[in-house]
Amino acid sequence: MSVRLTLKRVPALRVDLRGVTPAALQGLSTARIERLTVTHGMQTLGLAEFFAVARDDADEAADELVFEGELARFDRIGWQLTDGRIVVEGSAGDYVGACMSGGEVHVRGSAGLLAACEMAGGRLTIDGDVGDHAASSLPGSLDGMRGGTMIVHGRAGDRLADRMRRGTAIVCGDVGDFLASRLVAGTIAIGGRAGAHIGYGMRRGSVVFVGAAPRVAPTFVPALGDASVAWQLLARDLARHGGPFAGLPTRRIRRYLGDLSSDGKGELIAVL
């Protein structure tokens, strides 16, 4: 079953869409979907207050939920998603794809703050830009992204992948300050420029820079060992995403190890 929710009006306050997932809508009638409640500020309102609901019950219809419209004030789209597919034909608000463990979320615009926070599996694709703290930890938590793949075709804000523990975060454009701060593990690939304080407190993991050479802090040192085999495996995996990462297996690299101020064993990889 495929469900399409078309935005009727922009809300005055932010709306929390947690719980509105393909699995939650499976088997529900149009009238029942319209009566599902969401939080608007301090109010609890039905989905029909904001969306026109359409269903496709054809056998070939995918287990899919489509949001149509600019949803910059709608938060937690795909929150704790376990399976199915969500498409946003426009921009999305904060926490998109946060805590998801499976399935797919595709935003055909930009997204707000804290996208893919504590993501444990699945795939999040954002065609536009994403705000601060993407692929990082929720406020008050010690663990960031734990698995899955996040792909941003535009730019990302500050603190990308803060406290990230596992998974892959790919940004085709520029990123802000404190990239990979306190990184525990995982793979990050950047196609553009990065801001200040790269890898602050980094312990393990890999950060690949395909665009401009990174500004490496004094607490990172040049790597002397040969990592050509490991690089080929990583480069081939990243090259599948195309764009600035196409052709990576044929290019040379320069590696830096750190953050030594945190007894870190992570690596920054500058592609030459």
Our count of helices gives 3
Radius of gyration: 20 Å
Percentage of residues in strands: 25-35%
Number of strands: 17
Parts with pLDDT < 50 across at least 5 consecutive residues = none
Overall pLDDT, averaged?
96
Q: Biggest sheet, open or closed, and with what strands and sense?
A: 13 strands, mixed
- Which structural class fits the helix and strand makeup? mainly beta
Helix content: under 10%
The rounded distance between the terminal residues' Cα atoms is 48 Å
Side-by-side strand order of the widest sheet: 5-1-6-8-9-10-11-12-13-14-17-16-15
Shape: elongated
Q: From the structure provided, what is the oligomeric state, counting identical versus distinct chains?
A: single chain
- Topology as H/E string? EEHHEEEEEEEEEEEEEHEE
In short:
This protein is mainly beta and 272 residues long.
Describe this structure in words.
With 272 residues, the chain is mainly β. The chain has a domain at 199-272. Helix content is 8%, strand content 29%. It contains 3 helices and 17 strands. The strands form 2 sheets. Strands 5-1-6-8-9-10-11-12-13-14-17-16-15 form a 13-stranded mixed sheet. Strand 3 and strand 4 form a beta hairpin. The longest helix is centred in the last third of the chain and has 12 residues, at 228-239. It starts with a strand and ends with a strand. The model has no long low-confidence stretch (mean pLDDT 96).
